[in-house]
Amino acid sequence: MSKKELLVSEIEQVPEPFLDEILDFVRFLKTKIMKERLDTAIASESALKKDWLRPEEDEAWQSL
């Protein structure tokens, strides 16, 4: 059984009043993942900026 299937099986056994908390937690995790990806993209941008702002880069992309 996959982890996803195990999770669904466990959730099916949770009493209805607790499902809102589970849903909130899942949404929190999704937000956390998106924030981490954004942080990585921002960090990459500052590292790559040196290459992007070179005159050679401008010349390479000028014909597009």
* Global morphology: rod-shaped
Mean pLDDT: 88
Tally of structural domains: 1
Poorly predicted runs of 5 or more residues: none
Class by alpha and beta content = mainly alpha
Element string (H = helix, E = strand): HHH
Percentage of residues in helical conformation = over 70%
Tell me about the largest β-sheet.
Answer: none
Number of helices: 3
Q: How far apart lie the N and C ends?
A: 50 Å
In total, the number of strands is 0
Hey, roughly how much beta strand do the residues contain? under 5%
Lay out the secondary structure:
Layout: H1 3-12, H2 19-52, H3 55-61
Walk me through this protein's architecture.
The protein is mainly alpha-helical. The chain is built from three helices and no strands.
Features:
rod-shaped, 3 helices, mainly alpha, single chain, 64 residues
In short:
This protein is mainly α and 64 residues long.
